[in-house]
Amino acid sequence: SGTDQILQVYWGTEHGLKTPKTPTCILFNQKQQFWKFGYDAVMKYKSLSPSKADNWYFFQNFEMKLYNTTKVTSGMELKASNGKTLPALMVFSESLHCLKEHALNTIQEASFQTVCNQEEISWVITIPAIWSAAARQFVWLAARKAGLASDMISEKLIIALEQEVASLWCKQL
Asked: Keywords, A to Z (predicted)?
């Protein structure tokens, strides 16, 4: 209808939880294919037998790697809970893709199944101001790989500093 507003999304309801933020966790199977994100990733990983879990890739709080690493590159690797590694760009882009799909599904449900034109959507990814320019560029690359912007509509993807976005939100309120 155009007047619908989604002010708050809650995560984990299918697991008996109701939180405003999802844990930054992602799970890939033994073939290095994306499996689950957020609470779903945590629950699935915890349900695996120890021998099976050794062959899967579970990452948590991996966004901190962009802050703690002095040299962020598109070829860097991330270490899973069991010590196995995957390309960081793959981990970040799959996470952003999952969040994108969740947002689109939420919008569709709130608008009574009206399909929105993705080219009309502007995506804003917030990052800490203390992240390096290389980390910001890395997030941009991961977002592009996740399908949040194409070459033709790259102005629809904004990488913004968390405190600037918070300040604008406070002004809006």
From this structure: Stress response
Nearest Cα to Cα of residue 157 among 105, 114, 93 = 93
CA distance to 42, 88, 99, per residue, from 138 (Å):
25, 9, 17
Copy the structure tokens of residue 61.
Answer: 């709080």
Per-residue pLDDT reduced to its tens digit, 106-144: 888 887 767 777 778 889 999 998 898 899 999 999 999
For residue 105, what are the contacts with CB-CB under 8 A and spacing of at least 6?
A: none
Contact present, 53 and 121 (Cβ < 8 Å): no
Q: Is 83 left (phi over 0), alpha (psi -120 to 50) or beta?
A: left
Q: Is 122 helix (H, G, I), strand (E, B) or coil?
A: coil
Neighbouring CB atoms inside 10 A of 90's CB total: 18
For residue 89, the number of C-alpha atoms closer than 13 Å in the C-beta half-sphere is: 13
Taking the alpha carbons of 149, 153, 159, 163 in that order, is the dihedral positive or negative? negative
For residue 6, which of 97, 147, 96, 116 has the smallest C-alpha distance? 116
| Type of residue found at 163 | Q
Across 8-80, the runs of DSSP E, i.e. the strands, are: 25-28, 34-37, 57-60, 77-79
Residue type, 22: T
Whole-model pTM: value is 0.87
